[in-house]
Amino acid sequence: MKALSGIKKDSFLYLLVLPGVLYFLIFKYVPMWGIVISFQDYSPYMGVWKSPWVGLKHFIDLFNNPDFMILFRNTMVISLMSIVFYFPMPILIALLLNELKSAMFKRVIQSVVYLPHFLSWVIISGITFLMLSQSGGIINKLLPYFGYKPFNFLTNPDIFWWLLTAQSIWKETGWGTIIYLAAIAGVDPQLYEAAKMDGANRLRQIWHVTIPGIRNIIITLLILRLGHIMDVGFEQVFLMMNGAVSEVADVFETYVYRNGIQQGQFSYSTAVGLFKSVIGLALVIISNKLAKRFGEEGLY
To answer: CA 153, CA 109: separation in Å to the nearest integer?
Structure first.
C-alpha cells in the first residue's frame, strides 16, 4: 500500500520517466532473447524455434579463426588508445573552461569545442580526406613550402590508430566536457575559500579541491567506458578503412558486418557480438569491485 501511495503521489514523475523506461525495455531488453541464435544454425526460413541447435560451435569457430587475434589486437589497441588519450581530454577542457573569468568568452569556447559532435562521421571522414589526401590534401600541399615531401597519411598503417584517436578527440572532447562542467559546478565553493585561506594557488585548488570533487564522476564514466572496450565505432573505422591499412583497421564490428550482413552468417556474427558483450560485462564487474576496494562509490 505504501508503494502504491508513493507512486500515486509522484505520478507525474513516473510518467516523465515512462518513455525512457519503455525505450530500454523495447529496444534494449526485449531484443536480448535474440542471442539464442548464436547457439543455433539459424535460418530465416526456419525461424528461431525450428533452427537446429549447435551449442558452442560458432564460438569455437571464432576462437579458431586465424583472423581472431588480429581482430582482437586491433580492437583492444584502438580502445586502449582512446582511453589513454581521449578519456582525459574532456576532464582537462572542463577544468580549463572552469577557470575562465569571462562568461562571454567561455560560452564562445564551449560552442566551438561542442560543434564537431554534431557532425556525422561521414562529414568527419570527408574533412579528413580533404585535409590529408596525398594527391589533393591541404596539408600535403603545404608541406613542400616547409621543405618536406608529401606524406602518405591515409594509407600508412603505422599512423592509422593515431588518426582514429585524433578524430575521436576532435569530435567528442567538447561534448564530453558537459558532464564534467556540471560536476564541477556541484563542488562546494566553501572548499575553495578554505583552500585560499591555506595559501593554495589556482593550480593547487584544482588539484586538491576540483579533481577530488569530481573523482566519483570520473571513475563512474571510466567504468562505463571499460564496458564498451570492445566497441570502437563501426562507422568511423569503416569509412577510414582501405586496402593498405586493412591489417590494422579490421575490428570486430567490420568483421561482423562482412559476415553477418554481406554473407548472411547471422548465428556466427551474433556469437561474435555475444563474446564482445561478455568481455565488456566482465570488465565492468571487475573495475567496479576494484573501485570499491579503493574506497570509491563505484557504479553500483
So the answer is: 29
